[in-house]
Design brief:
The chain has about 90 residues and is of the alpha+beta class. Helix content is about 35%, strand content about 20%. The chain is built from 3 helices and 4 strands. Strands 2-1-3-4 form a 4-stranded mixed beta sheet, sandwiched between helices. The longest helix is centred in the N-terminal third of the chain and has 12 residues. The radius of gyration is 13 Å and the shape is globular.
Amino acid sequence: MNIQMYLEAKYNESAFKILKLLDDNKIEFSVLTFNNDDIDKVSSLIGEKVRRLPQVVVDGKCIGGYYDLMEFLINKKLINYKGVKDDID
């Protein structure tokens, strides 16, 4: 499975949660960073219009952000929902 993350160059809490989710579950991924004004370039690379970063692409298919990725990984049985820590209290 090829997972690519498209991130803003500056800190973003959602991006941090994605990185932590993948790292905690020992899932390999690559990261590409962009400035926020590069959204058209990111859309071109992904092959579909995106409005914000971060975006996660798995095997060439745009999954979306943190919750979309979590749902994808649970459905693929790569992570267990009970093992996912969601820091929103």
